[in-house]
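Hello,

Our lab assistant flagged a job as stuck in the queue for most of the afternoon. It eventually completed. Since we weren't sure the result was trustworthy after the delay, we are filing this so someone can double-check. Below is the sequence as submitted and the structure that was eventually returned. Let us know if re-running is recommended.
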Amino acid sequence: MSAQAPARKRSFSLLGQRSLAVRLTLTLLPLTLLPLLVFGLAAYQRSRALIRSQVVTHLQQSVDAQAQRLEDWRTTHEVPLWTATQSGAFAAQVADLLQSQQGSRRTSVLQEEMVARLLAINGQEPDSLYTGLMLVRISDGYILAATPTFWQGEYIADLAEMPMTATHVTREMVFSRATPISLVTTMPVPFADGESQAVLVGLSNDVRLGELIQDPGMSTVPETDLYIALPPDTVVHFDALNRQLRVIRVADHPAFAPMVAQGNGSLEFQDVGGENVVAYYRWLPEFGAGLLLEMPQTIAYAGLNTLAVFTVVILLATLLLVAVIVPVFTRRSLRPLGTLAEMAERIATGDLRTRVPVDHQDEIGRLSGSFNNMADQLSELYRDLENRVEERTRQIRTAAEVARDAAAVAAADRAAPV
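-- returned structure --
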């Protein structure tokens, strides 16, 4: 039984050594991986912010270029209308048409003359200023004369809500249902009494607007979608492939509120198609509309996928490296402790001649030296104790012999005859 006890103790000691190595490994793993993980996440977020800044800059440049083109278009198209309305002869011609009896021969003649005047102002296709130019009575929105002439006699029901002396984007016109969205320029005709009873209205349909947007000279960003925002419930998507404008009714679009409130900026959201996008917006108060340029996040942040994979590979490699190297170096570092534990077990069994080799100048070396000093003291104490026991035994043996001799003498004395 005594022979099995040291073996069990030795086995327990080795098991304890392995457990310590495992515990050190499990302790060092999070200490190593946590800073690396934090660094990886910080690098990812920083890279994402830099990429987003670059993407937003490109989107902003494209939107600003398109906004400037629209502003240039507005200026060049409003000036001819303003010049025409300032002509006294034109104002007199408008006044005659307003005062004529509708349906009369004179009215027809005046309409023909006005149409000719409008054609002179607007020009001929395809170089005309507008798709159509019309003279409209302000009181009820009645179209007195127009090019094309089939617009004559129609009504612009929401004329009173339109801004005067301005160009703005409007939705479907009642008299031109084939045009889902239009650019409308209004220019009142001043009369001598200071009041305006008629207004020149230039209308550019969706085809003209599409040509204006897709102009090859404007700054473009690949893989993007351009929208014209008409709060509160409409966006118009420009399909660059088919060169068409598509009206989309959408309530509570994420860009509506910041666009109107802030004027311009960027944001990330889920677009009308359900795709996550990075977008830049700019509100154009002169047009009563905004421009919104979107880029899918899968394209904008495509470079981050490589960084994410690289970070994961580094984490896995570090985990594997720590899991392999730490136990090896831990066992190597704990080997002197294992030797020390083995010697302690041998001393515990009574082998006081065992000494631990002092091969290190560190704490383990100091512990080994202290252990040897303790073993020396135990050996000296054991030898002293043995000497004392031997001396005491000799004294007892001597006393016993003396007592035995004394008893023998006494017995002899009692046996002798008197």
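-- support follow-up --
The delay was a queue issue, not a problem with the job. The result is valid. The first strand starts at residue 132 and ends at 137. The CA atoms of residues 29 and 322 lie 7 Å apart.
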